[in-house]
Structure formats: C-alpha cells, structure tokens
Design the sequence.
C-alpha cells in the first residue's frame, strides 16, 4: 500500500507540472491561431488544464505530496517556450504535438485512477477517470484538426501518434 501511495504521488507530481506546461503552451497556442472557432476551443482547453491542475493539487494534498519545485520550474519554462514557438512553427506542429501530449495525459490519469482504486480512494479514482476522459476529448479535437494534413503520415511514423 505504501508503494502504491508513493506511485500515485509521483504520477500526481508529474501531472501537476505537466498541466502547468500545457496551460502555458495552450495560452500561446490560442493566441497564435487566427480562426476564431479554433481560438475559442484552445482557450477552453487551456481553462480545463488549469482546472485539472487545481484538482490534481487537491489530491496531492490528500496524499501529503508536494509539487517538485524543480519540475514545476522546468515545465513552466517549457510551456512558455512552446507557447511562443506556436507563433513561428506553423499550424500543424502545435496541433499535432498537443494531441500527442493529450494522449499521454489520458494514459497517465488512467494509471492514477487504478492506483487510487487500489488505495480505496474512490473519489480520487472518479476524478482521475473524469480528467482522463477530458484529456481524450482534447486529443480527439487535435487529431481532428490534423487528420487530413499532408504531413500527418510522416509525423505518425516518426512520433508514433495520430
């Protein structure tokens, strides 16, 4: 049980920092997009990432786990840099890598839900599954945006998503 609690704490630390990076990246991403519908959808996704971060923080507190200062700083920096790169990288790459990231988040939250279940943390399990579903929605949105792009088959072979 101690190992499962530690494993869940590690996943939540990772998710907490990851949500920070994602939120900052999406802030730059939606600001770089000219299509108003895409802009609003990505802005909504950013809002949902901030919500996930808050909920993950709650469960970290329940486990008496603190965020990793180093990881938080590193991921905040990465997110901000990615947000700026959205202005120069064209449309495909921010959309593609956002979808790929969301795919990883979906799996991460499912794993957290399994650990929470094994610890008898039913409310945490439910919350993690809900966040996993939301990340899946994000993934599907971004996949839909790049689905017909000419570079997708190459990106799929190189980066194993899409």
Sequence:
């Amino acid at each position: 049980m101690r190992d499962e609690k530690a494993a869940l704490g590690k996943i939540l630390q990772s998710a907490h920092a990851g949500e920070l990076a994602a939120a900052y990246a999406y802030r730059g991403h939606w600001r770089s997009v000219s299509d108003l519908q895409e802009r609003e959808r990505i802005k909504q996704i950013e809002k949902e990432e901030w919500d996930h971060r808050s909920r993950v923080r709650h469960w970290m507190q329940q486990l008496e786990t603190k965020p990793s200062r180093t990881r938080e700083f590193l991921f905040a920096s990465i997110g901000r840099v990615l947000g700026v790169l959205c202005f120069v990288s064209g449309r495909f790459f921010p959309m593609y890598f956002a979808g790929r990231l969301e795919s990883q988040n979906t799996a991460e939250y499912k794993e957290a839900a399994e650990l929470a279940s094994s610890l008898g943390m039913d409310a945490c399990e439910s919350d993690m599954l809900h966040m996993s579903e939301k990340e899946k929605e994000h993934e599907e949105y971004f996949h839909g945006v790049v689905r017909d792009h000419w570079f997708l088959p190459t990106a799929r072979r190189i980066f194993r998503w899409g």
Notes: The helical segments are 2-32, 36-62, 69-85, 92-118, 122-146, 152-159. The longest helix spans residues 2-32.
